[in-house]
Amino acid sequence: MKTTNYMEDLIKSVRKFTESKDSPPLACVHSFGCQLNFSDGEKIKGILMTMGFGFTESFDSADIIIFNTCAVRESAEDKAFGIIGSVKHLKEKNPSLIIGLCGCMANEDHVVERIKKSYSFIDIVFGTSALDELPKLLLDIFNGKKRAFDTTEYNKPISEQMEIVRDSHFKASVPIMYGCNNFCTYCIVPYVRGRERSRNHNAIIAEVTKLVEDGYKEIMLLGQNVNSYGNDLSDGISFSELLRELNKIDGEFVIRFMSPHPKDASFELIDTIIQCEKIAKHMHLPVQSGDNEILKVMNRKYTIEKYLEIVDYARQQAPDFSFTTDIIVGFPNETEEQFNATLNILRRVGYDNVYTFIYSKRSGTEAASIDDSISYEEKSKRMRTLLALQREIAIERYKRFIGRTMTVLVDDECKSTDGWVHGKSNEFIIVEFKAPKELVGKFVKVKITESKNWAVIGELID
Ligand code: 5AD
Ligand code: SF4
Predict the structure, then answer these.
(1) 363, pLDDT greater than 70
(2) Which ligand is nearest to the CA of 224?
(3) Ligand 2: distance of its center to the CA of 105 in Å?
(4) How far does the centroid of ligand 1 lie from the alpha carbon of residue 442, in Å?
(5) The pTM of the whole model exceeds 0.70
């Protein structure tokens, strides 16, 4: 990690360039992918702000555009390359425009090669743990270097010094750890985000305390595998202990986290969630497949029986406990029977929401070398079957709330219905109701009247 003085000197040097302009140059940071990546985007904006940049949402008015990319599926990479290609003409019109690429794709060798060869209009490239190198890379460009890359290292210690420009004024993401040690055979993340590194618990508690003081109502703790939090620290505390400490912070707020790994999900974690009043009674617990043989080839390190023990334990203690999950459809050579086992898991658990992905081959992962006999058409068909089933399950599950009053954090106005807003219940279920937009960012009580397959509908209680 670079010393504070070294960073400060670099930031000062960049400021000389930004302050020499009539008005602050504008940065556009465009993030793709998961919440961890968006959280990195907020840090990148923090660094840009300390260097004297202002912000814009539009590519056309930007002096620097940074694409913070996702590598989890091929479709995410294609989307990123598509959007990046669409700004090439801006660079042709304005050669002083700086274009940067960072995030998970910047740690993939084949992507870096492609950028070097075919995307000469990209000026700077930096990997997932090189965010604090941005001032150095920018300075290189300001000093006349043609292109600046820092993509080799992805295991650096965590810097606690960075400023953050938050995207929301009432919902905050707080990474508690970075990286992943699990090497699920389909997943690129351990290769692009390095090994698990946990943040110091005092730094996390201080950050959350400050956020609550500043009026934040939802704190989302983030990590690739949050329940291994602290395993890499000699003076650390466990994830459950961390949750109990955060629960002690005074104020009106809800604590969420994403994502735990089923192999490390324990009864103790469930007890903690149920006993701590500020922790949402919801767990996003990615099951990926309902078949033990597939789970083994995926290297998931749990069986469906072990997974169900956790679900059943939670539901015994709190019958409304909400589970959501991730499913990969069409893992190489997944049989019809194995796919049916996944459908059965959906029925058995009764998820409130399911995020479904068609398997995407990621070069460098173990599963990429498996010859696959299942066609893309078949995989798409299975995906549609699964989504249709989940819609039926959701509409039935949500009926449990009809006639009851839910506490809802209001997220935004409804795009489709004037005068309506939507928010999330404690169980992470979407709630739609008629209310003024001034309630956005506040907790309100809503009486549920109807169940849809994507949300519940209700009436605001004064
Ligand atoms: N193909 C499809 N889905 C994937 N995921 C991770 N890697 C892949 C892949 N190669 C999904 C998993 C994970 C979620 C974040 O993305 O379901 O839980
Ligand atoms: Fe995408 Fe995964 Fe990287 Fe998040 S960690 S940005 S989902 S590849």
Answers:
(1) yes
(2) 2
(3) 9
(4) 33
(5) yes
Ligand nearest the Cα of residue 80 is: 2
Please work out, in degrees rounded to the nearest 5, the angle formed at the alpha carbon of residue 344 by the alpha carbons of 269 and 401: 60
Fold of 168-280: Transcription Regulator spoIIAA (3.30.750)
pLDDT one-digit tens code per residue, 382-412: 999 999 999 999 999 999 999 999 999 999 9
Q: Which of the four CATH numbers 3.40.630.30, 1.25.40.20, 3.30.750.200, 3.40.50.300 does domain 285-400 have?
A: 3.30.750.200
pLDDT score recorded for residue 177: 96
Distance of CA 88 to the CA centre of its chain: 28
SS3 410: strand
Ligand 1 pocket, residues with Cβ under 6 angstroms: 72-73, 186-187, 286, 288, 326, 328, 357, 359-360, 362
> Closest ligand 1 atom, CA of 355?
17
Closest C-alpha to 37, from 217, 161, 192: 192
The fold for domain 4-150 equals Rossmann fold (3.40.50)
**pLDDT-derived band of residue 153, with 50, 70 and 90 as boundaries?**
low
Which of 65, 328, 348 has its CA nearest to residue 185?
328
